Amino acid sequence: MDAIILLTILLFWITFVIAISHVFTYLKEKRMLIDHISDVTDVDVFEKKKRKKKSGSLIQKLTKYADEFADLGQRINFFSENQDVKDWLRKSGNKYELSVEQFQGLKIVLLLIGFISGFLALVIGLPLSQYALVLNPIIGFFLPIIIVRNQAKKRQDALRHDLPDFLDTISTSLQAGVSLDQALREVIRFFEGPLREEFSRFNQEIDLGVQRETAYRNLLERNDNPEFQSLIKSLLQGLKLGVPIATTFKVQAEDMRQFREEQVKELAAKASPKVTLVTTFVVAPVSILMIAGLMILNMIYGENSILNLFKNL
């Protein structure tokens, strides 16, 4: 009997070790397969999955209710016309994958949530609850507008930041004899953020048979960054006139770096008067008060203070 128990335990552990090894082999091969798919399609599968998790289930639940209020939201469209919303979502990268109708409905949902929370605060008797009954719905209505516009601005700033290095790398690859499409596919793998997203989508459109000029114009519509638009317009002009693309990328990179240096100098020049104001109205008065206070304390409590002179008299 003991031999059977020992044999059973031994078989269990052998089976367990084999199962664990197969699980690790499966995970390793899955990772290799996903990396291969990312290299071929220029899409980071893990990044996309992480982005979906980060968005949270709360937004997804709200969008379900937003569909029911979509018609009402499109009628109550203060500071959020449909065309403007479409433009904001496109330039922000549409992180939560919202349609224009869902965005308009989401405003109404958050407005109702703000009203209910303000009413509950008033019933409970929280401090300043009478103001919350008015402010919470207003905040709920304008919160999606503020968030999407802020995302669009950050995305365009990130695009501007990575563009010079991207152009230098592309220019070097083109001068080495690599074609533009191949250079874009290889270089964007080493960049993150909106720059990778935009040119990955550009490559996908080219692969699907979209004309190059149309793909360039789609890039212009999705982004309003001046430097990026200047690059795409130069590429469009070079496509029509036959200007070498490598030269275009190199000139654009030099111009952008020069423009960035001028911006830094301009910001430094604007900062100097601000520093002078702070020094004049904050630092200098505080320093004078400290020195005057020390002198007064020394006159009162020091060795040669006024009190000691009166005592000696």
TrEMBL record:
Q: How does it sit in the bilayer? A: Multi-pass membrane protein
Q: Does the keyword DNA-binding apply?
A: no
Q: What domain of life is recorded for the organism?
A: Bacteria
Query: Where does the Type II secretion system protein GspF domain start and stop, copy by copy?
Result: 166-291
Location, primary (coarse class): membrane
What are the subcellular locations of this protein? Cell membrane
Q: Which residues cross the membrane?
A: 6-27, 105-124, 130-148, 275-301
- In the UniProt record, which is one GO cellular component term? plasma membrane
- Entry keyword set: Cell membrane, Membrane, Transmembrane, Transmembrane helix
Q: Which PANTHER family match?
A: INTEGRAL MEMBRANE PROTEIN-RELATED, PILUS ASSEMBLE PROTEIN
- Its recorded name reads Tight adherence protein C
